[in-house]
Amino acid sequence: MAESNHTSCRIVVLISGNGSNLQALIDAQARGILPGTIVSVISNRPDVFGLERATKASIPAITLDHKEFDSRETFDQALQARIDEHQPDLVVLAGFMRILTPEFVRHYHGRMLNIHPSLLPKYQGLHTHRRALEAGDQKHGVTVHFVTEELDGGPNILQAEVPILPGDTPEVLAARVQLQEHLIYPEAVRWFCEGRLVMENNAALLDNNVLAPSGISFANTEA
């Protein structure tokens, strides 16, 4: 990947709903701590609030309704074409609730990030908060990782832990995790845009150092 810096790092964000992580990125950009520009937001669902967030921030907002396509492959081909119109350096999945085809993932190899509400590799897939509670875990959290063809299985970059407290419900736990999501996602995107974060040989590297399988603990990062 060519080294990106400051506003030359072009970011496309994919969403499916409320867009709270998108808002965290928009806010980071507005504060000048995100060295890049969100050039487009694309939703696979119409009329979601995340599109309003983009419009309010004067970011081009696009709806590409997956229900209008007859297969996953044709949707991903159309989505790829819309993304590539913006010549992005980075594609950010922010609550994008689609399983992506291998061809799509390979096209953005090393330049697509996802955030997942668990301490990966635990609880890949859906219903992570309920599953953590049912397992009797004492801690839960969130992971930012590179996207590979394995669902929620690409190399981890950054994790934040939260305690599981007596009386927690999936909804209460989700809210606690989401606060951490909004802190760590802009951080990982910042590292990428600064040219410090890359994926090589199916491993995440920060400042040329291979990260541990769990990624970096957010508590150990510098502001």
How would you summarize the topology of this molecule?
Elements: E1 10-15, H1 20-30, E2 37-43, H2 49-56, E3 61-63, H3 72-84, E4 90-93, H4 102-107, E5 112-116, H5 128-134, E6 139-146, E7 156-163, H6 170-193, E8 197-200, E9 203-206, E10 209-210, E11 216-217
Parallel strand pairs: 1-2, 1-4, 2-3, 4-5, 7-11
Antiparallel strand pairs: 5-6, 6-7, 8-9, 9-10
Summarize the structure.
The protein is of the alpha/beta class and 223 residues long. The chain is 31% helix and 24% strand.
Describe the structure.
31% of the residues lie in helices and 24% in strands. The protein contains six helices and eleven strands. The protein has helices at residues 20-30, 49-56, 72-84, 102-107, 128-134, 170-193, and strands spanning 10-15, 37-43, 61-63, 90-93, 112-116, 139-146, 156-163, 197-200, 203-206, 209-210, 216-217. The strands form two sheets. It has an eight-stranded mixed β-sheet with strand order 3-2-1-4-5-6-7-11, covered by helices on one side. A three-stranded antiparallel β-sheet has the order 8-9-10. It is globular and about 45 Å long. 39% of the residues are buried.
